[in-house]
Amino acid sequence: MTPKVILLAAACATLGAAEAPPSGLVVDAEGRLLKDGAPYRAIGVNYFSAFLRSLQDPDDTSYREGFDELAKRGIPFIRFNAGGFWPKEWRLYREEPEAYFRRMDAFVAAAEEKGIGLIPSLCWWYACVPDLVGESCNQWGNPDSKTIAFLRQYVKDVVVRYVDSPAVWAWELGNEYSLTADLPNAADHRPWVKPDLGTATSRSEADELTHDDVVTASREFAQAVRQYDPRRPITTGHSLPRPSAHHQRFDGTWGRDTKQQFQGNLLDVTPDPLNLISVHVYPFDEGTRFGQKTTTYEEILGLCLDASARAGKALFVGEFGASDKQEDGGPARAREENLEILAAIESTGVPLAALWVFDLPHQDSFINVTPTNHRSYLLDELERANKRLRSAGK
Questions:
Q1: Where are the domains positioned within the chain?
Q2: How many Å apart are CA 301 and CA 353, to the nearest integer?
Q3: Residue 8 contacts by C-beta under 8 Å, 6 or more apart in sequence?
Q4: Cα–Cα distance measured from residue 201 to residue 393, given in angstroms and rounded to the nearest whole number
Q5: Count of beta carbons in the 10 Å neighbourhood of residue 286
């Protein structure tokens, strides 16, 4: 163990006995999100490919222009994929780690320079790491697996390197692992097979995740982070529980969960020491939950906030947004939904949220937001919303 790691571990062990330093983002013992010692609320963006594009092309530093735009508008943070999406995109990390981290160093330094907060999602796609190490996806549920060993090593490499960076706001496991758990039709939704991108050449029942697999992966991630960072919030990247998540787990059906079952699942998939509960909210989440004809965004977020508070944790709406495909109602309907979700986030008191998605060209046909396309109004709305939140926090 290096001296730096020993000091961090000691700080972690004594955190409960001493007051956390009043700097950066933390979740206190009451579940309040604090920044620099004061209650804090903010709305950022998902900038999914900001770092990934520099992995794919070392000359691509277009994230700098993106950071400039966000900083100019007072949009304070991004959530992003902090690694490869496909197994093939991890080659540089595994074969030339110094070169890999030179690119990440430049990325983090640019965020520091522009005052942009970072929420790195370390292992975005749940099938990627198992494919990378030659295991099935259910090995997320085995603490002694090569999958978990890779997770622990990558967490150590990243967290130790950037634990002192003021740009890093929180640490995240990956994206929506929980949505894959206990699907009654799981055989129809196994991970993609794209061997040219490094995936397994076939899939089986062993690639179908269970609730327990997801919980184990989430806990192992958080425990790994806490070895090296005693204070920053840790989150999962999970979406809202499916409307039938409890029933899927216990009776293998699509039966509608009650509000209590919804909250129970939300807390179950966010085990300690995770302290920032993640949900993703989209228009289809407003539909027939809890046996009701309609469920409002305010009600869904209120239930999430209530569960979070009872657990002494904070809430992060890690994604929200509305597609403007014609089958989803087109641009006019998307605008209505986006503004309704944003209003619900503000009115219910959600402390942290991030719009999906900024500057992601391959989603330009239905949801990508840029300063020059017809969805640029959302950047204006986020700018205004953050001004209101800052004003209210004074």
A1: 3-392
A2: 11
A3: 160, 163, 227, 228, 229, 230
A4: 53
A5: 18
Q: Give the dihedral sign, CA 7/12/17/19.
A: positive
**pLDDT score for 284:** 77
Q: What is the pLDDT of residue 10?
A: 43
Query: Which DSSP string corresponds to 172-212?
Result: E--S-GGGGTT-TTGGGGPPP--GGGT--S---GGG---HH
H or E element that contains 152: helix 146-162
Note whether 348 and 302 are within 8 A (CB).
yes
Give the tens place of pLDDT for each residue, 155-165. 999 999 999 99
What torsion do the CA atoms of 232, 238, 240, 245 make, to the nearest 10 degrees? -130
Classify the C-alpha dihedral 144-176-358-231 as positive or negative. negative
Distance CA(50)–CA(175), nearest Å, equals 16
- As a whole number of angstroms, the distance between CA 329 and CA 272 comes to 40
User: How much is the pLDDT for 287?
Assistant: 66
CA distances (Å), 44 to each of 85, 87, 133, in order?
22, 28, 33
Residue whose tokens read 């700098």: 64
As a whole number, the mean pLDDT across the chain is 94
User: Which H helix or E strand runs over 320?
Assistant: strand 314-320
Residues with Cβ within 8 Å of residue 321, at least 6 apart in sequence:
282, 338, 341, 355, 356, 357, 367
Q: What is the CA radius of gyration of the chain?
A: 20
Least confident of 88-92, 266-270, 286-290, 380-384: 286-290
Residues 6+ apart with CB under 8 A from 364: 370, 373
Predicted TM-score (pTM) of the model is 0.94
Could you report the per-residue pLDDT of 64-116, keeping only the tens digit for each? 999 999 999 999 999 999 999 999 999 999 999 999 999 999 999 999 999 99
CATH 3.30.310.50 at 3-392, yes or no: no
